Amino acid sequence: MTAGTVTTDTAVERAQRFDRRLLAPMMLGSILNPINSSIIAVALTPIAAAFGAPVSQTAWLISALYLTTAIGQPLVGRLVDMFGPKRLFLIGAAMTAVAGILGTVAPNLWTLVAARVILGFGTCAGYPAAMTLIRRESERTGMASPAGVLTALAITTQTIAVIGPTLGGLLIDLGGWRSTLAINVPLGVASLIVGALFLPSRSTMDTAEKRVRFDFAGVGLFATTLLTLLLFLMNPHLRLLWLLAVCVAAGAAFAVWELRRPDPFIDVRVFSGNVPLLVTYGRAVAAATVSYTFLYGYTQWLEDGRHLSASVAGLVLLPLFGVGVVVSTLTGRREAVRVKLIVGGLAQLVACALLLLLGGGSAMWLLVAIPALLAVPQGLLSLANQTALYHQAHPQLMGASAGLLRTFIYLGAMLASSATGLFFGQRATTGGLHGIAVFALAASAILLILTITDRSLRRAPAPVH
Questions:
Q1: Distance CA 315, CA 243 (A)
Q2: Same structural domain, 402 and 291
Q3: Which of 413, 421, 464 is nearest to 33 (CA)?
Q4: DSSP count for the chain of H helices, then E strands
Q5: Which helix (DSSP H) or strand (DSSP E) does residue 215 occupy?
């Protein structure tokens, strides 16, 4: 073999490899949402104290992010298809930095909520941009998407979720609660730099054609459905039943409209005649409701009711995420969907029941043991629901089905936020924590009922064709 042949072969092999320069922007963009989801948990109590706001109002800091993310994820995903990942990635990075600046100087709570709304939309770009880049690299190299890249992406986001509350506590000790917003400025700027340097500018999409066909009406109806539902859940009174009526009407109109669209914003055909998939979405809502109720409610009580500092509260929560990652790693290769759901559901029930034993003088070992126990379902339920969806969704609708799973998870987060605000009211008291525990127990029971009565889980799963 000649030297020229060796050089040519080396160049071909290099061209067939995944472009490693894309890893930095992909990973950095993908952590922006999880870090802002978890870091706020330890900042809610000091924010309430700073603005003299009740817990029922600080709950909007959670709901604002999840509402905009639930709307923004499918929206930005479509925009990435229209304009390419680089443009949307850079816009998202800029919005993240702007949100960090606004949150750092916010003079009142509602300005802070506005910053979280901007942050929600800004952090939506990272994940769809990363998945689009992986798909394009697969097409360019003619090879399947490298498992190592997908694993690195997953581990990066999981690690950030693990350290988010602990990092938030340390930042608050060093620079006050505003530092948990200010961190988005360097993260946004860094994303802008690596995105501008390493992301490809080319786009294979016909943007003019896509722009004409974009489903603006579908986006508006979808946003109206979620917003009116959230507004009612945040303050459920008979006088606000009209919000629920608008929600139902907008949801029905959205379904009818999307079924008639040749290129819908969200393909609602995934629901058609697929009862097992609908049940999986229901379990996802129940699991997320328990998880986020615990994350935000328990954390606020640790600071307000148990009088721990933000940094200590973050350390107490560390087992919740760390053990969850370990459980996911150990059980990830085994499907056993029904077993995972039953074990996870029972562990949730026990953990939520233990919350009823807590009081202002509870021992530290018990405060740490409860999150460690809840970490078991954290590691089992998400994997089980994702595996169930993989087998239940129609292959041609897999993308839409997976996107809707994220939307239902965000719905559970919004339910959790609403429950936290309702039960705590002015302060995160022990009585309020016990109310949250009963609410979480009910959600855990619903998850178990949906699992036990789901006959499709009793047999070996087979993909839908």
A1: 40
A2: yes
A3: 413
A4: 20, 0
A5: none
Whether 432 and 454 map to the same domain: the answer is yes
**Judgement on whether residues 433 and 465 belong to the same structural domain of the protein:** yes
pLDDT digits (tens, 9 = 90+) for 344-364: 899 999 999 999 999 888 899
DSSP 123: T
Residues 382, 327: contact at Cβ < 8 Å? no
Q: Is residue 126 part of a domain?
A: yes
Assess whether 409 and 379 both reside in one domain. Answer: yes
In degrees and rounded to multiples of 5, residue 265 shows phi and psi of -60, -50
Q: H-type helices in 16-146, by residue range?
A: 23-39, 44-51, 55-83, 85-105, 109-122, 126-141
- Spatial separation of the C-alpha atoms in residues 369 and 366, rounded to whole Å: 5
CB 439 within 8 A of CB 95: no
Torsion of CA 361, 364, 369, 375, to 10 degrees: 100
Please tell me whether the overall predicted TM-score, pTM, comes out greater than 0.85 for this model.
no
Phi, psi of 272, rounded to the nearest 5 degrees: -60, 110
Domain encompassing residue 228: 216-260
H helices of 213-294, where?
Answer: 216-234, 241-260, 275-293
The confidence score (pLDDT) of residue 82 equals 73
Angle at 54 (CA atoms; ends 51, 60), nearest 5 degrees? 85
Whole-angstrom Cα distance, residue 110 to residue 115? 9
Q: Tell me, what CATH number does 274's domain have? A: 1.20.1250.20
